[in-house]
Amino acid sequence: MKESIIRSLIRRFSKDELIGLSAELAYFFLLSLFPFLIFLITLIAFLPLSQDDLLNFLAQYAPGESIKLIERTLTEIVAGSSGGLLSFGILATLWSASNGINAIVRAFNRAYEVEESRSFIVARGMAVLLTVAMVFVILVALLLPVFGKELGIFLFSVFGLSDAFLAFWNMARWLVSAVILFIVFTALYFFAPNKRLHIKDVFPGAVFATVGWTAVSFAFSYYVSSFGNYSAAYGSLGGIIVLMIWFYLSGMIIMLGGELNAVLYSRKKQT
């Protein structure tokens, strides 16, 4: 009798040490966050976007207390910086993100029970490419609402479309965000493990991660804003603690998505 998918995930959760790997991933997330945002802020200076657009996009998911910390820190960094901020952001982001990708690679290889046989250069190159792809899709996510709103207003005025259409157009950004998240997770689950997979093999984990990460982010944000008072326990570190917990939960969702793909792949091979 086959073990159920839920029981398999629970068993693998302990065997593959997802708690420790999620904590490691949270650390690298935090380490790469500010260089990544500095890079984006410097880059969007050449685009019809502002720092507020970037923070508003991040505020869709991150807890409110963390957004205040991020905004305050970025303001201090940008105000006290001189030239070379873009170069620093690129280099620091690539280095930090590649370490995070390596943690994900180890976790996924463990899930598929394979050894890493790719060379250091290939592994780092893959991490860099995934980071560049992530920057690209985030920029698309930032630009679409801006241009989408302008296009919606244009169509509204030219063709005399109803207010309901304009409201629908403004709400479409949530669908766009979900699609972009799905693409990012699909690429991550497909390229990270040292396993030859079909693209359809990673769809279940990508769907799980997209829905799970969005739901967990909103639920945790609501909890922090309504019930959690981390400042009372941690003082000025409260925002950092909230950010780390959010990163930890995000890492857990990513790891579980990879484990789900590995479980389903193993069951398919046994049939």
TrEMBL record:
Q: How does it sit in the membrane?
A: Multi-pass membrane protein
Q: Does the keyword Repressor apply?
A: no
Q: What is its main location?
A: membrane
Q: Where is the signal peptide?
A: none
> Which InterPro entries does the record match to this protein?
Virul_fac_BrkB (IPR017039)
User: Which keywords does this chain's UniProt record carry?
Assistant: Cell membrane, Membrane, Transmembrane, Transmembrane helix
GO cellular-component terms in the record? Answer: plasma membrane
Residues crossing the lipid bilayer are 21-47, 121-144, 151-168, 174-191, 203-224, 236-258
Please indicate which superkingdom the organism of origin belongs to.
Answer: Bacteria
The protein in question is named Ribonuclease
Q: Which organism is it from?
A: Metabacillus indicus (Bacillus indicus)
